[in-house]
Design brief:
This protein is an alpha/beta fold. Helices cover 43% and strands 19% of the residues. It has a single domain, classed as Rossmann fold (3-Layer(aba) Sandwich). The chain binds S-adenosyl-L-homocysteine, 3,4-dihydroxybenzoic acid and magnesium ion. Magnesium ion binds next to loops.
Length: 221
């Protein structure tokens, strides 16, 4: 199997499971035109996130790493009309692009894009005692996943679902001797999940239009 076959299979699966969607297409197009990297989730991963949030009955969603708002749109569409999604982004230019995309999708009433280092924003949330989230998607810088986990657990409650993207990195995460800060961060994150008796987790590797990567899925008890 090579990457061309993974891509062909992903295209086939997306064709069979997805309907044309102007807002999502426009979000990718405007992100590309604005010079953002194409590191958004794949369409079938986006739909999986949306379905997981729906299965959870999520009313409050937290996302770390907005980029152009592509995964944000998928997730926000899982919300009821009075739901809330807060998405954290360090780069102002990304947030500006994302807000336009979210607005075009008709979701700006549900979504707030908060600019700043996610650590600072999460610390402020904890300090302010904001209500817990039902569904949390970690997708910002991978070095900080351990710090993010520590903070988002304080913004969780029993039943909260946590999905973390990019925990495979073309298999590099299996290398215990890696000096790659992303790999070190993801490994420390997975160690923390393993050591936490209040979190039940699995992790799944994926191939497709975004190469070989994957995600972890956790439920807080
Ligand atoms: N979730 C998006 C992709 C996110 S890419 C999607 O699937 O569509 C990762 C994003 O995290 C980038 O936009 C990057 O600017 C942002 N980021 C990186 N470090 C960050 C930090 N410390 N705090 C907040 N956002 C950060
Ligand atoms: C990168 C970040 C992501 O969130 C992703 O899904 C793929 C790649 C990156 O920073 O390279
Ligand atoms: Mg990602």
């Amino acid at each position: 199997m090579d990457e061309q076959q993974w891509i062909a299979m992903d295209e086939y699966l997306c064709d069979r499971t997805q309907t044309p969607d102007d807002a999502l297409d426009a979000a990718l197009k405007s992100s590309k035109e604005a010079g953002l990297p194409a590191i958004n989730v794949a369409p079938n991963q986006g739909k999986l996130l949306q379905m997981l949030a729906r299965l959870r009955g999520a009313r409050r969603i937290l996302e770390l790493g907005t980029l152009g708002g592509y995964s944000t749109i998928w997730l926000a569409r899982a919300l009821p009309a009075d739901g809330t999604l807060l998405t954290l982004e360090a780069v102002e230019h990304h947030a500006v692009v994302a807000r336009k995309n979210i607005d075009r999708a008709g979701l700006s009433g549900l979504v707030s894009v908060i600019v700043g280092d996610a650590i600072d924003t999460l610390e402020a949330f904890v300090r302010d005692g904001i209500p817990p989230f039902d569904f949390i998607f970690l997708d910002a810088d991978k070095q900080s996943y351990p710090a993010y986990l520590q903070l988002v657990l304080r913004l969780s409650r029993p039943g909260t679902v946590i999905v973390a993207d990019n925990v495979i990195r073309q298999g590099r995460v299996a290398n215990a001797r890696s000096s790659d800060p992303d790999v070190i961060g993801v490994r420390a994150f997975l160690d923390m999940l393993a050591a936490d008796a209040h979190v039940s987790s699995t992790a799944i590797q994926t191939v497709g239009s975004k190469g070989w990567d994957g995600f972890s899925l956790s439920i807080v008890s």
